[in-house]
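Quick one - inputs below.
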Amino acid sequence: MSSTPEVIVCDPKPMGLLQRLYVIEVLKGLGVTLRHFLGNVFRRTYTVTVEWPEVKREYSERLRGRHILVAREDGSPRCVACYMCEEACPADCIYIEAEERDSDSVEFEKRPKVFEIDLLRCVYCGFCVDACPKEAIIMSRVHEMTFTTRDESVAGLDVLLQKKPLRKEDMGYRPYYGKPHSHIELPIPVKPGGLLG
Amino acid sequence: MTSRDLSISPGGGSEERAAARRPDGSQVFLTTKLDALLDMARRNSLWPFPFGTACCAIEFMSVMMSHYDLSRFGAEVVRFSPRQSDLLIVAGTVTDKMAPVLVRIYEQMAEPKYVISMGACACTGGFYRAYHVVQGIDEFIPVDVYVPGCPPTPEALLKGVVHLQEMIGKGETHYQRQLAAARAAARGGADGNA
Amino acid sequence: MATRDEIVASIRKAFPEGVRLLDGGDLPTFVVDRAELLRLARHLKDDPGLDFKLLADVCGADYAGREERFEAVYHLYSVTHGHRIRLKVPVREDDPVLPSVYGVWRAADWFEREAFDMFGLRFDGHPNLKRILCHPAFVGHPLRKDYEPGQRWLLREGEQDEPVWARQPHEDDDHFETQVINLGPSHPATHGTLRTVVRLDGEIITQAEVEIGYLHRCFEKMAERHTWKQVIPYTDRLNYCSPMINGVGYCLAVEKLAGIEAPPRAQLIRLILSELSRIMDHIVCIGANLNDLGAMTPFLYMYKAREEIYSILEACAGGRLTISYVRVGGLANDVPGDFVEAVRWILRRVPPLMNDMEKLITRNRIFRDRTEGVGVIAGAEALDWGWTGPCLRASGIPYDVRKAQPYLGYETFDFKVPIATTGDTFARYIVRVEEVRQSLHIIEQALERLQPGPIICDEHHVALPPKEQVYTEMEALIWHFKLIMEGARIPAGEVYGFTEGANGELGYYIVSDGGGKPYRIKVRPPCFAIFQAYPHMLVGHMVSDSVAILGSFNVIAGELDR
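Output:
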């Protein structure tokens, strides 16, 4: 493109006398901060602080938190140890050891003997969820985790396997089948308060 | 790779220690209560040093800003001088080039000192299994609290700080355990001599 | 704009020998004999019909097994004509020497050092050819194909690099006011991971050198070890102030190579979120710059908007910062149902915050005195250093990739390119402020056009098929399996993808050998080029000015060091 694009020249004007005097502009600036201050004291007009931990911010249904291994009705993992998530993981933080499922079951297939995710290695990209062909691994909205040792962070079947029926508010990132789930809560809810309530 | 030795002194000269101890070797009431009081003061006024190198530093900024506001937990005095701070928050990837700087800063911090490792990179190297990335800062310095996430949500870091405060209250941090071990050793040594 | 044939004819006429044109490709590509390189470079820069004033990128590439194993690749752009070319200079492994083009374009300074560091290419005539990203105790050249990605070298205290002049006594050393001081890498004003060593005479900087690489996370090596899709989370962590733009840039480049296009709805959503990310990035840049200069309040006010934009990104993608939302061929998920309302809410939210900030700052004499006339750079000089983006536009050159070579349909939107002519720190601030307004205007138009539709193309050799098909149809399952286990097969070839990042032209030079993993990915980070001029601009300024100048560049270490 040889023609120059439409431009706005936003060179500043030279400082006028009022600006050179400095005090007036600074007072105007102080007016802005005073407006915010008084607004917050009386009505919390500008307050945005989420008062964690008393008030927990609702993240969307797509939040990528700690993983959940979805269970079958009999409580065993739905996972068939196909290693697809292990392969898809950019951090190589998933470790699976497979074993044969009981031979007398109807579906003669594999299941994970060991399924470990290093939660400290994990980058929570959700690619394991995308990769799973059985919808056996999904992500929860559990994102507040802390550990005191490195060993503690390796979560096995005992931590990851779903134990009670999944409620909607537990589940995070998972397949959506094209439906636009999730909603955006704006402004971020804040506890009302201030001197005038 | 070995983690570095920590130079934690048992605190005070031997005479002072002797004066603070009962004949049976246990600590006198006053000093244990004083420790508890000090720990309470320390845990409610942590001064973080943000060792922010990468993406986690941006989330650390979020934690400091109005929506989350770390000052509600008494830790708003961010100091960029290691001499003035007691909580090292390592936020972001530490590379081999940066590691000596991190160790130096840790050593410059006055005791007592605590370390929070924020995010996958600082904790384990994350998905950078690569030629220039430290695979977890615990290769070099001891860590009290690991906060997973890439980067962790602000709530996770807040929880990390609260967790650390609880640990300080219970005397479980790395520094406190070292101190207790050193005291026990000194006591055992004194008893042995007597 | 000269056509491809005219460029080729003009170069052929001037260089009948030593320069060979390669067939096809996204850009006219010439293989240049290294003996001819300097003459050709000068011709390309000075010939008014070609006028390649911007050296966008220099990088190395390793083709193990070829007789001439290494290649130095140059990407050039002409701001006046709007055309690009690529030069390739092959060299042998036993003699990896080629002339430095630093004398022609100063932009080559750090790019050549990086190619030396990564591949061991030696640039004859470079003034300061030493490692730039890896630490001094490092052995070997990590991006060579035979270097194991996990092989680490430890750097010990005391082995850090010092500029040569910092160790040598200076003629003025008996003068008590001359001293060498070190800023960073852990210093509040260096934003984490940059190090500047300066020699001072009183408070005036007389010499400066910058060291980077403290956040060298080996992006390019990691990209070669992962499938095309797995690279996406890595791109998020390049410029972590505006992750969406990086992902879009990467996917556009790969799509160009694969010859596919994302559906219109996906394009539009990419555009909207890119512009939101640009706003976020400028907010951090302006806020951090002001914070360094002692004005904390505007940062606090404006960060509110950033946090609220995070809400939108998180509801769309699932992550606040590192979103991994873009996919080759489209997007990971459709946006939530109330996306339009939420973005409109942001559109109403940002202007009052910006006004508050402007009231506090723009007419404030303290700020103006500290920034006007500080860090001045003329347009031609900035271009010579390889500058792009808001910093270049603040020096009066209206080069914006969105206007010059539009992508994602930017040509159909009404927006203007803000420029300033003074080229100082204040101009860089004011240009960013205006850009935020323009971005808001673009988003407003884009929201009007948002129509329902698919968000990922159905080319299943590249993009994952929808989950419901995977569970029910055999063919979809097979594609799914192949894509996860082997990665998408992108046709062999090379491409230079360019987008307007928040800091300037964000380029991806991608080479594919037809396999499931990229053969080579080189990122052209905009702030790398900008930052290399920094030590030269510091001379004559005071130490406190260095903080103001650095903040106005918006150097993001993740992108600078990769």
